[in-house]
Amino acid sequence: MFTGIVEEMGKVVGVKPPVMTLQGKVTLEDAKLGDSIAVNGVCLTVTSLRGNRFTVDVSPETERRSNLGRLAKDSAVNLERPLAYGGRMGGHLVEGHVDGVGEIISAVPERESFVYTFRTPRALSRYVVEKGFVAVDGISLTVIAERPSQFSVAVIPFTHEHTTLGTYGPGDLVNLEVDILAKYVERLARAYTRQRAKPRRREGAT
User: Fold this and answer.
1) Is residue 145 part of a domain?
2) What is the CB-side half-sphere exposure of residue 156 using CA atoms within 13 A?
């Protein structure tokens, strides 16, 4: 489990599918084999460590669901270690299980900040609500506006400078993870609705 508070920007130093080699510093301070690290919001397992580099395996499912398959050598990536029990919850609960890929429509300056607008798969739109959370490339962001297949977020200067968002522009693809609680509520509501819709048997009926 992660919080969507990016600890550092690392970079890709090698891609030889299914293995990806990345470079980091802060996220490797206490890392060991088998640990999880979020790479652009995708929870991946450390398979080797050497100095300031580590490797991960990227499965076909991960490539289908995320932008990791489009990364090349020297691509910048957001890195975050898992949330420690008892640690501060700075963003929101992020699983690192990306739901799909969105596209940047625009990045408009607003005083010192920026308003980013994303196009999102229609299947994910129903989980995006104003003032709710969305993880974008692993960054916990608050939705400031939404409409069918689009939503906008405000990005402060620090986030713009210290994450991959500052390197992106219109047309670039980002990983999206919606709030898991919304999906659980939807599933429970569907089950309840189906149960209510079933015809009741009258007592004594045979």
Assistant:
1) yes
2) 6
- The number of angstroms, rounded, from the C-alpha of 34 to the middle of its chain's C-alpha atoms is 21
What are the start-end ranges of the E strands in the chain? 8-16, 19-23, 36-39, 42-50, 53-57, 76-80, 100-110, 113-119, 133-136, 139-147, 150-155, 173-178
Residue for token digits 């390197």?
167
Question: What's the pLDDT band for 151 if we cut at 50, 70, 90?
Answer: very high
Residue 41 covered by a domain? yes
pLDDT in tens, 24-36: 999 999 999 999 9
Which pair of structure tokens corresponds to residue 182?
A: 């919304």
**Residue 58 belongs to domain spanning:** 8-80
Tally of domains within the chain: 2
Query: Which CATH number do you get for residue 63?
Result: 2.40.30.20
